[in-house]
Amino acid sequence: MAEYAVELRNVWKRFPGPGNEAVTAVKDVSLKIADGEFFALLGPSGCGKTTSLRMIAGFELPSEGEIFLHGRPMGKTPPYQRPINTVFQSYALFPHMTIGENIAFGLQMKKIDKQETRRRVGEALEMVRLTGYERRRPKQLSGGQQQRIALARALVNRPEVLLLDEPLGALDLKLRKEMQLELKKLQREVGITFIFVTHDQEEALTMSDRIAVMEGGVALQVGNANDIYEHPTCRFVADFIGDTNFLVGTIGVQEPHQARVELAGGVGLWAHTPQPVRQGQPVTVTVRPEKMHIRPTATDVNVLTGRVSDIVYIGTDTHYGVTLSGGQRIRVREQNYSVESRLLAREGEMVNVRFSIEAARVLTE
Amino acid sequence: MIQRFRENRRLQGFLLILPTLFVMVVMLIIPLTLTVVTSFGQRDADGNVIYTFTLENYWRLIGFTEQGWDDLYLRILLRSLWLALQTTVIVIAMAYPLAYFIARAPEKRRNSLLFLVLIPLWTNFIIRIYAWVMILRGQGVLNSALGGVAGLLSIPFQPLDLYPSQGAVLIGMVYEFLPFMILPIYTSLEKIEPSLYEAAADLYANAFRTFWRVTAPLSMPGVVAGTILTFVPVIGTFVVSDILGGRQVILVGNLVQRQFLDARNPPFGSAASIILLLMTLGLTLYYTRRFGLGEEIAAG
Questions:
Q1: Which CATH number is associated with domain A243-363?
Q2: Third-level CATH fold of A4-237
Q3: Is A92's CB within 8 Å of B297's CB?
Q4: Which residue, of A122, A190, A276, B56, has the fewest CB within 10 Å?
């Protein structure tokens, strides 16, 4: 059996809710996270991602199932006995200690000798580029600096796995972008498995090797950024990651891996079917706006006619809202390649929207 | 005119603090000055104060009397100090676990638990202290109960001689000041962000080490505030010692009271109260310097 850094096997978590009802936060989640992987748990608030992370850390115990760390079942091991460290969302730096004392805390608890501790604290500060900050207090540091100290305080212990709970949530946009790249670079350098929780899909796509999209306590889909974006397996994932259009219809004629989908208003399209479908089955088709075209040079197989209802120019792209003859509304994104890029249609005009069979994907869930 | 008043923030601020300023100056500084002046005075045969400048009262308090060495008053001072110290330590030891329990209780239950802590304060202070007389005296509640149990077990029972005594005063003090220690400790414990406990656990600290390295230092501001709220009133008390200590337990507070009311010697009473004030001030300053009021920690 291949050994994973972290494995969740059929993990459930129920909390006592109002009355005698139990609230299920995590439902039968199984995940295998490889050594050295940068793994994201992505989902909206209340999806169970933070609870999953807290169970790995040991702050919560699973109601059912088991968590393995490098093949060792964690059982009821308390957090202070797990070789795992956490970067908290609020950083949770000890306000009564200096930066140096904060970083040294874990090493002191493990009874590492003083000289070694001092050396490693120095190294950790160097790693997060805050050398010379030992004597400051957390309060004297900016949010971004505190974030880096929280990271240093965790990494100085050389954990088997580093957990990050919305680590960049409290930073402003520009700093967040910088830190995303910095975190990723740091992870490559230290080679430690990072598991991080986020509700920001862009952050997850930017940083992680693989992503688990969670909703309602269930891990809906696990895969790399490309998989999740291009091959969503359900409507929630397609909707949550990036923008997309949904077209509702029923299955008509079928061919291997593709099928005709009949939409309202007597129109239809050809779409890719990753899973078996049957004739007459009601389905949703997802097509990303950037994969639809209204430029006259487009030659894709699928053609839908509609009336332009609104146009939004955002510099890199122009977004066209199109109401199809069947009444369904879609958005088309045309990239503005050249300086001379001009509007391809005017509001109220009838246009042909073209897209390939591969761009349209049938979702049954 | 009104417009100018609206724009004058300094004037507005001054008017707002005026009532307090009045109370502080008129009700504190003036009597305090009078006490200092009186403490250097003498008393004539009729008990009137003669305003002169003599250190005689102070010499007498620390043991040097006209009749030679007499440590009567020095012992009273030390007894007060010792009792205040004992009370404070016992109150901290009792209040901390309870404050911790309330602070870690579910948020909805905390207020009702704090409410329970405050209920005794609804009863008049004197009545509560007298209740302890009923409990502790020779044929009181405690002795009757113990006697009853001893009777059932056929053990010979000698009623405990608890009242009046210094022990009874200590019990009364501890009882009286417990809420004043629980509240500030609770407040500082409640302010500690729960993620700090998790961070400590995450960094390999077990519950015991988390307490000493995180909880205890972060709750020090509450302990310091509670100590001041307890130590200062206890060291100057005279009511509790009067009721529960009888004539045996004389504290500085009783000394001051008797010099003013019974002995009709205000200069000596003033000197005693100034010594008490200096003692309290010195200890409080030392204590807050040493352990800090810790505003910056609490705010962090």
A1: 2.40.50.100
A2: Rossmann fold (3.40.50)
A3: no
A4: A276
